[in-house]
Amino acid sequence: MSRVLVVGGAGYIGVVLCEQLLEQGYDVRVLDRLYFGRSGLWSIQDRAEIVVGDMRSVAPEVLEGVDAVINLGGLSSDPTAEYNPEATYKINTEATRDMAIACKAKGIRRYVFASSCSVYDKGVLEDDANLLQTEESDITPTATYAKSKYDAERYLIDLADDDFCPVMLRKGTVYGFSPRQRFDLVVNTFVKDAFSSGELNLHLGGEMWRPLLEIRDAARAYIACLEAPEDKVRAEIFNVVHQNFRISEVALRVREALRPFNVDVDLRPTYGMSGIRNYRVSGEKITRVLGFEPSIGIEDSVTDLVTRMRRHQYTDFSNPRYYNIRWMTLLEEATDLIKVAGSMFDDPNAANAS
After folding, report:
1. Which residues share a beta bridge with 210?
2. Which CATH class is domain 3-326?
């Protein structure tokens, strides 16, 4: 039985990937800082080995007996990355490189890395922003998150040789249900907004393009790259995209998918430019080279998401745990308060008494 180390395995995509790996007979070890706690691990905690740790400082024993690494770790999304650019680069780029070096020294050949299609973002004002971009497109990402992923790819490619096989997946915007749920991703956000307010806000009128990918398809893509012959994936970058949609069409599809659940939705276009991303991406290469093709569309995913939300009674949509940047800022605030005041349950006289 092959043992796979999943870095960030307690995260949004990580838990779903671990579920699929376990179902296919892999021995799974998770390395995760557990920023979001253990609640997302309920579906795998009795079947996988959970190691609490930071990918910036990996103990040698974490790699013992490991046959392959899938690295999903890091600070994800633009707002989270911009909150602390220095930490983002150290985690997303330098720690990715350092772990790859450690894997190579340990004789671990396969290293699958979670990159992002956000490296293609040109914004809405560029003349070629609507062009379909491929892995061969000339890109120079400048946003903190995109640049951290792009630079990590460069390091991994430089490390590739006959003894080390890194492969990079640039995923589209992921959506769908996870035991570690997020509502700060566009399809999930629309579902959340439909239930909480009955309104979907379309920034810039929903005119911008976005490549989308269902979370279960994302997990399948990692496994496809894990199992592919080395000569097909060594130092290769693959875009993983189901389809490209304008955000306005995403909203319409979400609205239609919610009709059987008796959820009424109004579309509210706005025309502010803040935070707008716009890019279209081809996923043809991974289909041609590996025969992999995403298959789950927005409507099926929304149906699954709502069914599971109701089954698990997801109703507290304002909970910061569902939003990466909100949770990170809350943790920072709590850390600062505890430094000053300590835990509210600690007895200040206990130290003196001892």
Report:
1. 245
2. alpha beta
